[in-house]
Design a protein that fits this description.
mainly alpha; Growth Hormone, Chain: A; 18 helices
């Protein structure tokens, strides 16, 4: 009989941990922490402003600084992951984000807090693209729909849970805890990843594309600043106009440069891939609708109905439950049978109809009806997020996955920022309040218009879904216990 030699303890532990499980755990934890940070901090802004004795406009820089920093560093993430190894960059990004979160909690002035938020954005900008690339490299195309279902956990649960957790922490503890709460999550993710994540093969991305990074980072940063500040400062203000125009010019220059660069940091040539291009169109437009709606519904609950931040968060939370239930329905049943073209289109139409129904909510609407609509919205979004992410990368090679995820996440981040800005602007233009009998009361027409704008964007996203050919995504349309299904047109 031959004797089996046991590997060292550390190697054995890694061998027993399925790489799909290891990547999923670290990626979900990192993304959950990063995405929740945006909504949880928004709840704390008024309290931070009072503590530091600054104006509401000034305190807004806390959020703006993070979003701009995030946009600047997203473009570099794909190259860094390919050059130095995805595990190193992902764990390094989590470490930067976690350390910056701890520093934010210790800030003694607004300028300190803004500086630490910029550092948070450096780590946050690399988390999503590198983590997504790792996830799609360990899940083969036939299992991509499962990977996409995993992605819905942080991207939908975190935004809905943020106001709930933020309301509790600010009310019962201190605003500093909205930052400290990231620390145990980040430390646990780093420890788990250091032990169980396997080193994926390093690729050869070529020399760092400094012109492309400078143009894309500054262009995205300017655009993010402009669209974020537009509703507050006014779209005609010099600062907003200047930054948006500058951003557009820089992005235009980036396109011209990157198309001539042999190894660009932003792989725009990937948009020549019909499936990837269609997925990006869907993701951009539906992000405008989805993230704009999440923001507007919180204004409806708090400013229109007078709910607390905690009450608003609890009434929004059914959306996250709906998405997670919808993700299971999508990945296990609908996607293999319908294919991405019909599946995404049905999901987009559902989201449009539900969002239009949300626009009918008024002063006396039942909160249980509103919660049911939020659940239905989440159920519909599950039929968009899961198939879009699964299909978009179906024909992307392993070598190009890092660059593709960079582009995909940049599109999603910008779409979300535009959505919040557009719906906020719609509410401001119509007027969130008006006089009735000499009293200032909420004007629900403003919210109705905002939600209808969101519904229109999700409907417009069908331009991308109807351009998809199921045959191109055939390798992702695999039933769990059967085999590949027949593809449609």
């Amino acid at each position: 009989m031959s004797t089996r030699i046991s590997p060292p303890a550390g190697v054995d532990r890694r061998a027993r941990m399925n790489p799909k499980v290891a990547v999923s755990v670290v990626f979900v934890a990192a993304m959950f922490m990063s995405i929740m940070d945006v909504t949880i901090v928004n709840v704390a802004l008024p309290t931070i402003g009072r503590d530091f004795r600054v104006t509401p406009t000034a305190v807004g820089t806390i959020s703006i600084a993070f979003l701009v920093s995030l946009a600047v560093f997203i473009p570099a993430s794909g190259w860094l992951g390919d050059r130095f190894g995805a595990k190193r960059i992902l764990l390094g990004a989590i470490a930067v984000f976690t350390s910056a979160s701890a520093l934010c909690g210790t800030a003694t002035s607004l300028s300190e807090l803004v500086t630490y938020r910029v550092l948070q954005g450096v780590g946050g900008g690399m988390l999503a693209p590198v983590g997504l690339a790792m996830l799609f490299r360990v899940f083969p195309p036939r299992e991509r729909v499962r990977a996409s279902a995993i992605l819905t956990v942080p991207t939908t649960l975190a935004p809905a849970l943020g106001p709930v957790v933020g309301g509790i922490l600010v009310t019962d503890l201190s605003w500093r805890w909205v930052f400290y709460v990231n620390v145990p999550i980040g430390v646990a993710a780093i420890a788990f990843g250091a032990v169980f994540l396997q080193h994926q093969p390093q690729l050869k991305p070529g020399r760092f594309d400094l012109p492309g990074f400078a143009l894309s980072g500054s262009g995205l940063g300017c655009l993010m600043y402009g669209v974020s500040e537009g509703p507050d400062l006014g779209w005609g203000s010099p600062a907003v106009v200047t930054t948006i125009v500058a951003g557009a010019v820089l992005i235009g220059a980036m396109v011209a440069v990157e198309l001539r660069t042999r190894e660009p940091i932003i792989a725009l040539r990937l948009l020549g891939n019909r499936l990837f291009r269609s997925g990006n169109v869907v993701m951009a437009l539906v992000s405008v609708s989805f993230f704009g709606t999440l923001f507007a519904i919180s204004l409806y609950y708090q400013d229109g109905r007078g709910l607390s931040a905690l009450g608003s968060g609890l009434s929004t939370f059914p959306e996250a439950v709906g998405v997670m239930a919808g993700a299971q329905l999508a990945s296990r049943i609908l996607y293999p049978r319908l294919g991405p073209r019909r599946h995404i289109t049905i999901g987009l139409v559902t989201v449009s109809v539900v969002t239009a129904l949300i626009s009918t909510l008024g002063a006396s609407a039942s909160l249980w009806w509103a919660r049911l609509l939020m659940f239905a919205l989440g159920l519909g979004m599950g039929q968009v997020f899961v198939p879009t992410q699964a299909a978009s990368f179906a024909t992307i090679s392993a070598e190009a996955t890092g660059r593709a995820s960079t582009l995909f996440n940049a599109v999603r981040q910008l779409g979300g920022a535009v959505g919040v800005a557009l719906l906020t602007t719609a509410i401001v233009l119509v007027g969130p309040t008006h006089l009735v009998g000499g009293h200032v009361v909420a004007q629900f027409l403003a919210y109705r218009v905002a939600f209808l704008v969101a519904a229109a964007f999700s409907l417009c996203a069908t331009v991308g879904s109807l351009a998809i050919r199921d045959s191109e995504a055939a390798q992702t349309m695999v039933r769990r216990r059967a085999g590949p299904v027949a593809t449609g047109k």
